[in-house]
């Protein structure tokens, strides 16, 4: 039975990998059709369906490989109570996974019964792509429940047992009966909580919001996997603040967010990073950069900032920037003896440049919401993005002089000619970046199509280099599949939580409360900085913009603040939210990549957070940083 279940999870993972290959093929096919003046009906929709298939089918495989992430501080510090805590975590995770699976199957059957079809050119019967969603969700639920059963009825410690390395000797709940009773107690607690949330008077809004926020912090802090915890929190919000069916609302939101054409760029850029990481290309890039960056105080730590700045102009995604550059830089910097604190912290901060330097999804959403020119917003993000990157590099220089004991061994000095010769190693990576950026800014490819260029280019370069073989290809593909599924589950939970937060009215209530004070422009910006930092702790940046802008926009216009400038301000404060707990997305991605505790990663990112606060002050003092370039270019 054990080998059958493990085979099921592995098969599901390989099916997800095939779906990822299908994404690449569909994106290339659509691009070629467009270049040749042909129409590929439904190409974008098919790629979105393949994206959903990749996300769902890989969930169980990712879970069994301990690639889904959770805030494990409480688990690791629980001592003799660790088995109790694990039963709590796996029981609640099982409930969330079963909830997702039940409504995924239900939605698929409903689509088949009513013959629901997509609204695109393809008119695809939706039950067909949703079948992959249902299968993936069911296998994921089986995997989580399977792990719970193994913890209850055996000495199994869970998917991340290797991170702790202890046996259960001396831990509480030594008998199977006591562990089964513990599961029953957890189920009773969940049932009582649901009854309490629905039992309050509809007008007891403040009390419900308090319970909602408490549940959010408690579930995330107690060690439940982040995506499943967000779904659980969102469910509590839905049953407390609306009569809408939470399961139906959840599955519609999850399907819409996971089957997005825009989202397909993410796994492709991640795959590109995996190829670079698993071949000699990343090592060659460092060998080429070392002679030049090693001469700057701070040395190769600057590659984190330089790499993220360049890649931000390719992807427009903070997560894709972080995973691609991190896969290349973290192993190389560790090998060279750079302190982990600085390696992780600078990467966490610099990866947020993916939101600032165009193309930026946050700026697109902001521009559509306030009806401002997307082109002007993209232009406005260039100079502030470069200034922020320069400030990150100055922080590295300051560390170098203030902490001389932490400096690694200096890189071997070499002459100018030797450095130039070594720089030829950069040619493949630079060529790849030029192709990806050039295809997008030259108008030949969209960001998603540019990501496909990146994957194909990385594979071709690795093959020419001789470091691509069957093993590295499969490992890079499965690595990209796991990382994509991990991010996708969190995005699904965040999308459902954003919907639930909208029903609570909390973001709009806070914005309306600030509006009552009639603050001066500078005071208003200071208040909104704090406001968006707080909101960003619970929502992703795009959701924060969508949920609050209806209230914020009239305040900004009335105060005479330039809406182009305010868009750049929004991006900076949203960047801060990427590295602030409890739902700092970059922190979770780094936790998955480094296996460090989330609190440690948050501490490493704290100086970068301070730099971003300083950036807000600079934007206030020098608004021309954001407005000068679009004014100059458009006036010509």
TrEMBL record:
<feature type="transmembrane region" description="Helical">
    <location>
        <begin position="450"/>
        <end position="468"/>
    </location>
</feature>
<dbReference type="InterPro" id="IPR055348">
    <property type="entry name" value="DctQ"/>
</dbReference>
<feature type="transmembrane region" description="Helical">
    <location>
        <begin position="125"/>
        <end position="145"/>
    </location>
</feature>
<dbReference type="GO" id="GO:0005886">
    <property type="term" value="C:plasma membrane"/>
</dbReference>
<feature type="transmembrane region" description="Helical">
    <location>
        <begin position="480"/>
        <end position="503"/>
    </location>
</feature>
<feature type="transmembrane region" description="Helical">
    <location>
        <begin position="44"/>
        <end position="63"/>
    </location>
</feature>
<feature type="domain" description="TRAP C4-dicarboxylate transport system permease DctM subunit">
    <location>
        <begin position="214"/>
        <end position="624"/>
    </location>
</feature>
<feature type="transmembrane region" description="Helical">
    <location>
        <begin position="180"/>
        <end position="197"/>
    </location>
</feature>
<keyword id="KW-0997">Cell inner membrane</keyword>
<feature type="transmembrane region" description="Helical">
    <location>
        <begin position="292"/>
        <end position="316"/>
    </location>
</feature>
<keyword id="KW-1133">Transmembrane helix</keyword>
<feature type="transmembrane region" description="Helical">
    <location>
        <begin position="12"/>
        <end position="32"/>
    </location>
</feature>
<dbReference type="Pfam" id="PF04290">
    <property type="entry name" value="DctQ"/>
</dbReference>
<keyword id="KW-1003">Cell membrane</keyword>
<dbReference type="InterPro" id="IPR010656">
    <property type="entry name" value="DctM"/>
</dbReference>
<dbReference type="Pfam" id="PF06808">
    <property type="entry name" value="DctM"/>
</dbReference>
<feature type="transmembrane region" description="Helical">
    <location>
        <begin position="337"/>
        <end position="357"/>
    </location>
</feature>
<feature type="transmembrane region" description="Helical">
    <location>
        <begin position="423"/>
        <end position="444"/>
    </location>
</feature>
<keyword id="KW-0812">Transmembrane</keyword>
<feature type="transmembrane region" description="Helical">
    <location>
        <begin position="377"/>
        <end position="402"/>
    </location>
</feature>
<keyword id="KW-0472">Membrane</keyword>
<feature type="domain" description="Tripartite ATP-independent periplasmic transporters DctQ component">
    <location>
        <begin position="23"/>
        <end position="152"/>
    </location>
</feature>
<dbReference type="GO" id="GO:0022857">
    <property type="term" value="F:transmembrane transporter activity"/>
</dbReference>
<feature type="transmembrane region" description="Helical">
    <location>
        <begin position="209"/>
        <end position="237"/>
    </location>
</feature>
<feature type="transmembrane region" description="Helical">
    <location>
        <begin position="563"/>
        <end position="585"/>
    </location>
</feature>
<feature type="transmembrane region" description="Helical">
    <location>
        <begin position="84"/>
        <end position="105"/>
    </location>
</feature>
<dbReference type="InterPro" id="IPR004681">
    <property type="entry name" value="TRAP_DctM"/>
</dbReference>
<feature type="transmembrane region" description="Helical">
    <location>
        <begin position="523"/>
        <end position="551"/>
    </location>
</feature>
<comment type="function">
    <text>Part of the tripartite ATP-independent periplasmic (TRAP) transport system.</text>
</comment>
<feature type="transmembrane region" description="Helical">
    <location>
        <begin position="605"/>
        <end position="629"/>
    </location>
</feature>
<feature type="transmembrane region" description="Helical">
    <location>
        <begin position="249"/>
        <end position="272"/>
    </location>
</feature>
<protein>
    <submittedName>
        <fullName>TRAP transporter, DctM subunit</fullName>
    </submittedName>
</protein>
<keyword id="KW-0813">Transport</keyword>
């Amino acid at each position: 039975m054990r080998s059958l279940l493990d085979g099921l999870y592995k098969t599901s993972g390989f099916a997800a990998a095939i779906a990822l290959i299908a994404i690449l093929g569909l994106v290339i096919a659509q691009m070629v059709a467009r270049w040749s003046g042909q129409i590929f009906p439904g190409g974008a929709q098919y790629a979105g369906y393949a994206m959903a298939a990749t996300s769902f089918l890989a969930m169980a495989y990712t879970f069994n490989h301990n690639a889904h992430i959770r805030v494990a501080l409480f688990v690791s510090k629980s001592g003799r109570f660790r088995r109790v805590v694990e039963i709590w975590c796996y029981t609640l995770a099982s409930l969330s996974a079963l909830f997702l699976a039940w409504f995924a199957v239900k939605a698929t059957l409903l689509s088949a019964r009513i013959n629901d079809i997509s609204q695109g050119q393809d008119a695809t019967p939706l039950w067909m792509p949703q079948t992959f969603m249902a299968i993936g969700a069911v296998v994921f639920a089986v995997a989580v429940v399977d792990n719970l059963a193994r913890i209850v009825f055996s000495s199994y410690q869970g998917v991340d047992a290797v991170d702790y390395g202890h046996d259960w000797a001396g831990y509480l709940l030594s008998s199977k009966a006591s562990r089964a009773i513990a599961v029953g107690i957890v189920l009773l607690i969940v049932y009582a909580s649901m009854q309490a949330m629905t039992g309050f008077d509809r007008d007891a809004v403040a009390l419900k919001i308090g319970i909602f926020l408490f549940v959010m912090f408690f579930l995330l802090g107690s060690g439940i996997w982040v995506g499943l915890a967000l779904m659980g929190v969102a469910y509590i919000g839905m049953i407390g603040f609306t009569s809408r069916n939470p399961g139906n609302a959840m599955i519609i939101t999850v399907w819409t967010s996971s089957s997005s054409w825009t989202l397909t760029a993410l796994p492709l850029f991640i795959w590109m990073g995996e190829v670079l990481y698993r071949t000699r290309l990343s090592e060659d890039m460092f060998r080429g950069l070392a002679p030049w960056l090693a001469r700057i105080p701070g040395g190769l730590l600057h590659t984190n900032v330089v790499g993220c700045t360049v890649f931000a102009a390719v992807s427009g995604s903070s997560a894709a920037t972080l995973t691609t550059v991190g896969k290349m830089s973290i192993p190389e910097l560790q090998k060279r003896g750079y302190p982990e604190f600085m390696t992780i912290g600078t990467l966490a901060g610099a990866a947020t440049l993916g939101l600032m330097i165009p193309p930026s999804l946050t700026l697109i959403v902001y521009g559509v919401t306030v009806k401002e020119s997307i082109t002007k917003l993209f232009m406005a993000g260039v100079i502030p993005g470069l200034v922020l990157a320069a400030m990150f590099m100055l922080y590295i220089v300051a560390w170098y002089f203030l902490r001389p004991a932490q400096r690694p061994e200096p890189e071997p000095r070499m002459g100018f000619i030797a450095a130039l010769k070594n720089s030829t190693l950069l040619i493949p990576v630079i060529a790849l970046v030029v192709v990806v950026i050039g295809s997008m800014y030259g108008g030949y490819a969209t960001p998603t199509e540019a990501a496909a260029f990146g994957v194909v280019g990385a594979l071709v370069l690795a093959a020419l280099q001789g470091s691509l073989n069957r093993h590295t290809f499969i490992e890079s593909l499965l690595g990209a599949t796991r990382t994509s599924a991990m991010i996708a589950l969190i995005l699904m939970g965040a999308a459902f939580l954003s919907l639930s937060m909208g029903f609570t009215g909390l973001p709009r209530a806070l914005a309306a409360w600030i509006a009552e004070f009639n603050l001066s422009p500078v005071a208003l910006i200071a208040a909104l900085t704090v406001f968006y930092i707080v909101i960003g702790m619970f929502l992703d940046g795009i959701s924060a913009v969508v949920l609050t802008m209806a209230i914020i926009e009239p305040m900004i216009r009335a105060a005479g603040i330039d809406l182009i400038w305010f868009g750049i301000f929004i991006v900076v404060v949203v960047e801060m939210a990427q590295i602030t707990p409890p739902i700092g997305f970059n922190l979770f991605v780094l936790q998955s990549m480094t296996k460090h505790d989330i609190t440690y990663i948050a501490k490493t990112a704290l100086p970068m957070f301070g730099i971003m606060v300083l950036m807000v002050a600079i934007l206030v003092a020098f608004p021309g940083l954001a407005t000068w370039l679009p004014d100059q270019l458009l006036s010509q």
